[in-house]
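Revision sheet: structure tokens.
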Amino acid sequence: MRKPTLAFKGNKQALPSKPCAVCQRPMTWRKRWARDWADVKYCSEACRKAKPDHG
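Predicted:
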């Protein structure tokens, strides 16, 4: 009997995505972001640090 792997084996095209607020690259949904997907704005720590200041 085979042990299940943790890698995603489904259709990644079906996952939701949205653009990064800084670099505008598409961010694909990650399981790690499942609880916070509505609040995810930046694709990386570098983009989070480079966020524009509004004030």
